[in-house]
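Incident log, support desk, overnight shift.

02:14 A customer reports that sequence design results differ from what the structure should imply. Their input is reproduced verbatim below. On-call engineer (initials T.W.) acknowledged and began investigating.
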């Protein structure tokens, strides 16, 4: 795989970083407790105690008990969208979105266990699946909106808002699907693959229009690295 340049995002201030760290600690505590005890046996008080905060603080970050099991690492989506909005005009839409994702996936193996535990929690608690789907759909639509902004800002003549049809939604949807497939592949091949490599392989297939793979040849050749 060729190297992907890092996209630039604004650095949050200390206060914002502390708030995000607290939110992440609550979400991680919720998922770990639920994986061990079951969602129905995990209280807001138990989650708060495990994260080292008060139950009152919990509701500063989550509107309900169930949200804590669903909304883990949710700040990643906003950073991806910010990267897409600031992507260079010369990129293809697929490359702009891929680069934004890859910049966030470096070192993701450190979080793989937590995401696998969340999947386990969902399987045991079907009522959370709809919440997860709603959150996923909202994130996908927000990415579509960010891509639309970028298309409008970097299109021919930069003439402003245009009608892009289903294109932004389609790119957002296939990007999220590529991430899910890459994550599932890495979970079923532990220690054999790196998430960023599998994710970029998926985009190579997408960029080539999903032709039939040649037997044992793997994906089509990657595009020539940009200079």
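02:41 Re-run completed on a clean worker. Output:
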């Amino acid at each position: 795989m060729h190297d992907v340049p890092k996209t630039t995002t604004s650095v949050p201030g200390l206060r914002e970083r502390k708030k995000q760290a607290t939110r992440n600690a609550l979400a991680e505590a919720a998922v770990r407790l639920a994986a061990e005890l079951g969602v129905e046996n995990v209280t807001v008080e138990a989650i708060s105690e495990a994260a080292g905060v008060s139950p009152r603080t919990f509701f500063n970050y989550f509107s309900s008990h169930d949200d804590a099991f669903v909304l883990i690492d949710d700040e990643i989506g906003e950073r991806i969208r910010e990267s897409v909005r600031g992507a260079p005009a010369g990129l293809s839409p697929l490359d702009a979105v891929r680069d934004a994702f890859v910049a966030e996936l470096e070192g993701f193996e450190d979080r793989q266990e937590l995401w696998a535990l969340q999947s386990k929690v969902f399987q045991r608690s079907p009522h959370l699946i709809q919440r997860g789907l709603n959150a996923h759909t909202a994130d996908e639509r927000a990415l579509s909106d960010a891509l639309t902004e970028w298309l409008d800002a970097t299109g021919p003549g930069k003439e402003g808002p245009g009608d892009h049809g289903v294109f932004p939604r389609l790119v957002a949807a296939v990007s999220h699907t590529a991430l899910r497939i890459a994550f599932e592949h890495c979970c079923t091949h532990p220690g054999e693959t790196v998430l960023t490599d599998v994710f970029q392989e998926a985009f190579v297939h997408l960029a080539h229009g999903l032709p039939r793979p040649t037997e044992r040849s793997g994906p089509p050749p990657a595009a020539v690295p940009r200079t």
